[in-house]
Design goal:
The complex is a heterotetramer, with two copies of chain A and two copies of chain B. By secondary structure, chain A is mostly helical. Chain A has helices at 2-19, 28-50, 55-61, 71-74, 80-104, 109-134, 138-152, 169-186, 212-227. In chain B, β1 and β2 form a beta hairpin. The chains are: A mainly alpha, B mainly alpha. Chains A, C: It holds the Pfam family PaaA_PaaC.
């Protein structure tokens, strides 16, 4: 179930990042929406991780290199454009992934069938904001372009094969590129031209290599749990 | 005049006042003040609890806490909408909050220092809020009363979750128990202050009661809250930090010790532990979001123009 | 040795905060200076805490409420004006404190005699920057005034009596006020008018009541140590 | 001409060239490029290590790490000063760094992912730096050579501390040992790349050797480093991640596997794991400090004026 754990880590880590927005969103509606997305992801994470062990032991007692999430999920939240760009890249990926996973009829299919509905909403939400920011003001356009450019090199990793998943992830990559390009185009944004992964680190999360930001994320997330070994909450 | 008489009759008959109805300016102003304060409290109130989302010690508790903070944002939305029925915009209300010209509940100027504070806020702060708010479900102003019905239902859920969180700590390790006791020690008195000054000292109470915005006096509600909490604290295995708290057979209620109103006044005056921090953070979030709101407005304007053009073309 | 522990906690926590500046100071000379001050404070902390137990157990395994540092030491670093204002308030206090402590001839006197030399440098450094920022540009003046105002309500706690220290801390308060007022005056800044402590929390660090920022400071500081129980480093 | 001849004689005689001496423009330009890169590397190099100051697992290690980062800031200061003797200002050099027009060592574009990375940087990165820098103590340009003497002394101290940190981890718990091994796995190859391209590929080497800025070829220095590290790794109980590493009896040196120069080129091109992050953080720190530097300048100007006035008054 290494694949379930990898997908569970993605969802957990991104939920943790989105949780940082609570109370600080640009409009109150987004406090609701971002927390809602975070809750969906946290729910997916709990189901997936529970398939492979105790959810709390996995979340709170693993070391950095034992997490298998993509680096895209762990990057700092940045500004609202960075968050929107990540949500776009990630939710288009998740929608394709869960739809394909639901079709496999395997052990993860029921979960995927439920999640794909949630994720379609996340994708729609990200798309709407990509349009507003890309095609809004000069400033929002500039910020949004910088955000989609900056995150591009973390997107290749999403389509690395995951053993035992039963989904042809590399095969989904062209569809993902098409869909993302379509949204970016409608948002008057340019599809980034650089590499979609880079040597050594960007794109090695699935091998347990993360970014400097991830250690700090874990320190915050795990501190309290680790400070009380064996306690129940 | 006639309008005033119709208003008075409606209030007397417990008929709801609705946005289209005539109402006295002072009634409207009182509602705006109170409802805005209530809405502001929901959004400022996200901060002390959101402080623990990233550090929640189990995934189940993290999910519960996220959902709670989300509910608070939702309550803020209903309450701003309800306030807008009185002819003031959310933007205007937010500007007043940010300028310090409208208040939020002083309770949120206390810090959440440990995980147990999340439980204490649920049990005591939400508990006090519910005690205050349940009667508001019968408030004379319709939109406010209806918002309250929904909010109270969710709040009572939060209150139970807070209680259960504290129970788990109280029955946990000695460190967890101490954490729970410490949180209750810190939140008990501020929670009692949430009901406002003693009846003799309360500036707005009498008129609000006459208008049926308010249904019970501050001291009545406070007493009700104390009477609910004392037996719950016993079940929790936690002590309420008031040596004068004891059952009064003749009143059929618990007597409690004197409240330190000077602290209450200091916090109101802006000298509470987190007043500046809370308002600064709110202002910063709002300022950081300016470019986003501007983008959304610009996009909506372009998009509306597109639709107009489409209509024009269809007609031509 | 409760007093030694309180003073040790002050030094440790402020060193931790100053350590956050490393690499991010406004000029390279300040990267050197701030780290140097942090190192002095860390040295004081290690000596003081070692008098009362194992320095690492005390630093890394106590819970928040077991720390006895003043809240002034734990507040976030803010901008360079906030850091300068705290350094001014704290170093003037420490200079008076250590000078008085050295005179007692008690157990802590040798440490205090050494520390007072270090702290005189810290105070001089803070004073120079208070003058530059207060009497520099309009912007720096505005920032510095806001900083000295904002921290004022945490200063009263510094002069709370400490049992067993043998120093009349309340008695040092008027001298402190005079010295701080002198520097602020020369820096064209106004001595803050508000209360120098506030109910409930501001000024209760010595009783183990801290600020919201402190829990996050500890999570970062203690995480790695706690993640490897019993390990040697 | 005559000046060129004097310069050539001085270089040939191993006499130091000093700032007041005539020197060829290309020599000056090469030095500025190299010394600026060196200075920039010291200040960018603070970031990956400062990343662990707040999380150091013991107070002793925290103090050692703080002192090391402080030393790096100090090295930056000497090196900017030494570069200024060539007629360029520190501000100008910093602007070029921030604009991406001058480089810093690519090694700092790798992240420090665990505490063990602090040790690996000390042992391998500082070790490689020393191997590169010891010959620079005899560099033909006086101010650079003298700065290097002081820097090398401190660097070798850092190198020993890093080695000792790794030794403690390697002999610690299985998790600590694994952490140390993982760090060495990640830092070994990038450290070998610090010596620059293979001798055949190195653009500036021949001229620099002729000018006695450089004293040994890249490959010579790399070999020296490998030969030092292999036995140290054995004592550490850690494996160097190169299956082709073996003693070559005939050369009296260790052979090592082929270096992946495409990675080196990618990192140089800006596509390393932390290129953007490092430069962004540096720029942000510089921008955040603008008002402070302006204040210091304004204060100095006023103060200078005060002193001038005092002089005037004294004269009058």
């Amino acid at each position: 179930m290494a694949a379930a754990r990898a997908l569970g880590d993605d969802a957990l880590v991104l939920a943790q990042r989105l949780g940082e927005w609570a109370g600080d969103a640009p409009v109150l509606e987004e406090d609701v929406a971002l927390t809602n997305i975070a809750l969906d992801l946290l729910g997916q994470a709990r189901t997936l991780l529970s398939l492979t062990g105790d959810e709390d032991e996995l979340a709170f007692l693993r070391e950095e290199h034992e997490f298998r999430n993509v680096q895209l999920a762990e990057l700092p939240i940045g500004d609202f454009a960075d968050t929107t760009a990540r949500q776009l890249y990630f939710s288009v990926y998740q929608e394709l992934l869960y739809a394909a996973l639901a079709d496999t009829g395997g052990a993860l299919a029921p979960l995927a069938a439920k999640a794909v509905v949630e994720v379609a909403y996340h994708r729609d939400h990200a798309e709407q904001w990509t349009l507003r920011l890309g095609d809004g003001t000069e400033e929002s356009h500039r910020r949004m372009q910088r955000a989609v450019d900056g995150l591009w090199r973390y997107t290749g990793e999403l389509f690395e094969p995951l053993d035992g998943l039963g989904v042809d992830l590399p095969g989904l990559h062209p569809v993902w590129r098409e869909r993302v390009a379509d949204v970016l185009g409608r948002a008057t944004l340019t599809v980034p031209g650089g590499p979609d992964r880079t040597p050594w680190a960007a794109g090695a999360g699935r091998q347990g290599v993360h970014t400097e930001a991830f250690g700090r994320l874990l320190a915050e997330m795990q501190y309290l749990h680790r400070a009380h070994p064996g306690a129940s909450w | 005049g006639e309008l005033q008489a119709a208003f008075d009759d409606a209030v007397a008959a417990d008929t709801r006042i609705e946005p289209r109805d005539w109402m006295p300016d002072a009634y409207r102003a009182t509602l705006v003040r109170q409802m805005a304060q209530h809405a502001h409290s929901e959004i400022i109130g996200m901060q002390p609890e959101a402080n623990w989302i990233t550090r929640a010690p189990s995934l189940r508790r993290k999910a519960i806490l996220m959902a709670k903070v989300q509910d608070e944002a939702g309550h803020g939305l209903y309450l701003y909408s309800a306030t807008e029925t009185l002819g003031v915009s959310r933007d205007d209300l937010l500007d007043k909050l940010h300028a310090g010209r409208q208040r939020y509940s002083s309770i949120f100027n206390y810090p959440t220092l440990t995980w147990a504070d999340v439980g204490a806020i649920g049990w005591l702060v939400d508990g006090a809020a519910i005690t205050n708010q349940v009667p508001l479900c019968r408030c004379s102003y319709g939109p406010y009363a209806r918002a309250m019905v929904r909010i109270c239902k969710e709040e009572s859920f939060h209150q139970r979750q807070g209680y259960e969180l504290l129970l788990a700590l109280s029955r946990g390790t000695p460190e967890q128990h101490a954490m729970a006791q410490d949180a209750v020690n810190r939140w008990w008195w501020p929670s009692l202050m949430m009901f406002g000054p003693a009846d003799g000292e309360s500036a707005h109470s009498a008129q609000s009661m006459a208008w049926k915005i308010k249904r019970h006096s501050n001291d009545e509600l406070r007493q009700r809250f104390v009477d609910i909490c004392v037996p719950q604290a016993e079940v929790l295995g936690l002590t309420l930090p008031d040596p004068d708290l004891r059952w009064n057979e003749s009143r059929g209620s618990y007597d409690h010790g004197a409240i330190d109103w000077s602290e209450f006044q200091e916090v109101l005056r802006g000298n509470g532990p987190c007043n500046e921090q809370r308002l600064d953070r709110r202002r910063t979030a709002h300022e950081n979001g300016t470019w986003v709101r501007e983008a959304a407005a610009a996009y909506a304007a372009k998009h509306a123009a597109d639709q107009d053009n489409a209509h024009e073309e269809a007609r031509a």
